[in-house]
Amino acid sequence: MRPSKRQPGEMRPVSFERGVSKHAEGSCLVKFGDTHVLCTASLEERVPPWMRNSGKGWVTAEYGMLPRATGDRMRREASAGKQGGRTLEIQRLIGRSLRAVVDMQALGEVQITVDCDVIQADGGTRTASITGGFVALHDCLKWMEARQMVSVDKVLKDHVAAISCGIHGGACVLDLDYVEDSAAEADANFVMTGKGGIVEIQGTAEGDPFSEEQFTELLALAKKGIARLVDLQKMAVG
């Protein structure tokens, strides 16, 4: 039995609350159990210098954790003068994941920045950020569509979502919370599209190496979880 009393293939409760930011073109408060992330998507009528006059747009992301997102207060990275390596790695992952389902030519020469701020952390902050970030991005594009700037169906090629899997107590389990993640023999993050395309897999053995058979089982769990997340995204955005 898992510490949370969940079954091996059972996810934490997942919810999306849209329109939580008055000023952002798209926003979503996503909850994976006790992991809560505020995702906002902001439209800027500019692109990075290296993309000027290309006719293509750009989607990027930023990620951060509030000081009391965890049990002990963390120092704000701004006060330290630089972002940590983990933060940079996660926000690049979020950006890559969202760009995988966006047609930059159809977007036009604008930039959408998706900010993911962790309000409360209990494992899986990057997977929640990607999954909720997609909803915020979708709503930003709907805002643009209402102003005849784009067609959402042409810009978004698919849904994208992410989930964690791992080996805990010798068993392959889906959607690790902090207690499981901190004691897992192996853990992995899977980013996949609604059609089943693989965007990225991050997997690590924390102790003994895991087998190909175990990886196949983790992948099967991830596919199941992401299919459920995509269904929830579709229900959220109508």
Automatic annotation (TrEMBL):
EC code(s) of this entry: 2.7.7.56
Any single GO BP term: rRNA catabolic process
Molecular functions (GO terms): 3'-5'-RNA exonuclease activity; tRNA binding; tRNA nucleotidyltransferase activity
The entry's keywords: Nucleotidyltransferase, RNA-binding, rRNA processing, Transferase, tRNA processing, tRNA-binding
Keyword flag Transferase: yes
Residues bound to phosphate: 86, 124-126
Domain Exoribonuclease phosphorolytic: from-to ranges: 10-140, 160-225
Catalytic activity: tRNA(n+1) + phosphate = tRNA(n) + a ribonucleoside 5'-diphosphate
NCBIfam families assigned: RNasePH
Summary of subunit composition and partner proteins: Homohexameric ring arranged as a trimer of dimers.
Function recorded in the entry: Phosphorolytic 3'-5' exoribonuclease that plays an important role in tRNA 3'-end maturation. Removes nucleotide residues following the 3'-CCA terminus of tRNAs; can also add nucleotides to the ends of RNA molecules by using nucleoside diphosphates as substrates, but this may not be physiologically important. Probably plays a role in initiation of 16S rRNA degradation (leading to ribosome degradation) during starvation.
Stated family: Belongs to the RNase PH family.
PANTHER family reported for this sequence: EXOSOME COMPLEX COMPONENT, EXOSOME COMPLEX COMPONENT RRP41
HAMAP family: RNase_PH
Protein name stated in the entry: Ribonuclease PH
Lineage: Bacteria, Pseudomonadati, Pseudomonadota, Alphaproteobacteria, Hyphomicrobiales
